[in-house]
Amino acid sequence: MSPRNSVSDRYDALIIGAGHNGLVCAFYLARAGLKVRVLERRAVVGGAAVTEEFHPGFRNSLASYTVSLLQPKVIADMRLPERGYRVIERPIANFLPQQDGGYLKVGGGLARTQAEFARFSQADAEALPRYYDALERVADVLRGLALQRPPNLGEGWRTMLAAASQGLPLARLDLETRRDVLDLFAKSARGFLDGWFESEAIKAAFGFDAVVGNYASPDTPGSAYVLLHHVFGEVNGKRGAWGHAIGGMGAITQMMAEAACEAGAQISLESPVAQVLVDGGKVAGVTLKSGEEIGAGRVIANVGPRLLYERLLAPADLDPDFRRRIATFRTGSGSFRMNLALSELPRFTCLPEPGEHHRAGIIIAPTLEYMDRAFLDAKRDGWSRAPIVEMLIPSTVDDSLAPPGAHVASLFCQQFAPDLPARRDGALRDWDDEEDAAADTIIDTVEAYAPGFRASILGRRILSPKGLERTLGLVGGDIFHGAMTLDQLWSARPMLGHGGYRGPIDGLWMCGAGTHPGGGVTGAPGHNCAHAILAGRKRIGRRTLG
User: Fold this and answer.
1) What's the confidence (pLDDT) of residue 230?
2) Do residues 69 and 522 make contact, with C-beta atoms less than 8 angstroms apart?
3) Quick one: CATH architecture of 10-49+68-86+246-329+483-545?
4) What is the number of alpha carbons within 13 Å of residue 431 lying toward its C-beta?
5) Is 428 helix (H, G, I), strand (E, B) or coil?
């Protein structure tokens, strides 16, 4: 990590934000010989993927909390396993306590999940292999697109070639799979799942993925795609699996920072950017909040589109139509994040003793109707009195996170309004005043399924939507940097004409989750942006030689 450089320094690329995508981008550019500096406003690298002590003796991932979507190519290129990268796969994917005192487990192999489903519906158990096959066929196409730059409108023959090349796998699909593609991109999660299953518990088990980071009802058209987005990852070569990172998510980004620095990148902490400098229609560098100016031929933003274009660039440097459209780029994932220090494992009424369910994703959202009510409540009141909760307890596999016999729990909760609705008398409300009450509601929700849970809590760290924005720069608390809807995907992420990682100003680039393929700890946007920049340098070099 470097000290601040003088104003005379000039770089090939400055990267705003040392989140995982910024570090991935820095690694590839520095490895190719560019002079790269990463500017991070916080005192630690990692962005949303950091591990911090939040209560004496208790450490946990601050925001991002589980692994699946990180690209195998990025893992291999950065030599993360050699640096200590280790992920423990969940023995079962998810555990869903039910309101009637029962439970549903998903994962642990097809045969085991089918046997579990048969307790709820024999027809659903028989349908499961076909459902998995349908998702896998579509997910395989998306995997093939994840590390490709989307066709960028306005680039002439290159746009046409990219569209033809990336569209070819879709064109080769059989008719049944094409129908599944249309369903997953256009239908609601409920509409899609109703075509496969009859049990409400089973539909909830799959429908939960459709509301993760998605401030919407499972009845909202397009929510089926968010379900799909969460299934095309892998852990240790096993597709669709999820796992716990040993050392927390921050261990991964520390390894990425090490790889980037070894490749030649510089990383400056506590260096918040105040403005991107533009001179003559071209990027000239940045000004830090300290007043220091740093020159560069490229500025690469690993922050969300709204933050970049509305807060870090002067309005005069952007076309009026671009400003109008970026103002309507939808953010706000409705997420609420909380870490808890626990004296003991929760004792669920349905399964009170310690077991594999404590190492799974523990989901409190027993039906799609429950999820729909949570969203409607949030729109009306700010949050639901029965919110959607996913709890992971990583200390069950990583004893470095808590003292002996104690545990840490990650609670990732959905359907919390990015901006609280006003009171009935018109008075405005603020998350700073109400986040403790919302956190208490979440704990009450878990307590209803695991009596004694509240009494086991030794400490907590809360991040409301406002807290996520203030702490991590996620506008509206959006964990994906922008809604994952059809109008904000692929070539339209964040906007048609700028879906290829290049901004509207010469030398301005984007490498964060607000670009293709979207949110999650994937490393794909950072990888793709770096390769787009390097491909452009090669084209310029060929023209010069010619």
Assistant:
1) 81
2) yes
3) 3-Layer(bba) Sandwich (3.50)
4) 23
5) coil
Beta strands in 343-382 (DSSP E): 361-364
Q: How far apart are CA 331 and CA 329, in angstroms?
A: 7
162 or 89: which carries more pLDDT confidence? 89
- Pairing relationship of beta strands 383-392 and 361-364 according to DSSP bridges: antiparallel
The position carrying tokens 């003088």 is: 6
Q: What amino acid occupies position 23?
A: L
Nearest alpha-carbon partner for 243 in 65, 18, 373, 444? 65
Q: Residue 298: what pLDDT?
A: 98
* Structural domain spans, the chain: 10-49+68-86+246-329+483-545, 108-241, 332-475
CA-to-CA distance for 515 and 382, rounded, in angstroms? 28
Across the beta sheet with 335-342, the strand order is 103-106, 94-97, 361-364, 383-392, 407-416, 335-342, 457-463
Q: Specify the higher pLDDT residue, 137 or 343.
A: 343
> How many CA atoms within 13 Å lie on the side-chain side of 436?
3
Do 450 and 357 touch, CB atoms closer than 8 A?
A: no
CB 385 within 8 A of CB 441: yes
Q: Which of 1, 533, 79, 99 is CA-nearest to residue 296?
A: 533
| Residues 268 and 37 sit within 8 Å (Cβ to Cβ) | yes
Q: Which two tokens stand for residue 454?
A: 């509240």
pTM for this model (two decimals) = 0.93
Show the tokens assigned to 146: 């994840």
> What is the rounded distance in angstroms from the CA atom of residue 206 to the CA atom of residue 239?
16
In sign, the C-alpha dihedral spanning 24, 25, 29, 32 is positive
Given the DSSP bridges, would you call strands 299-301 and 508-510 parallel, antiparallel or unpaired? parallel
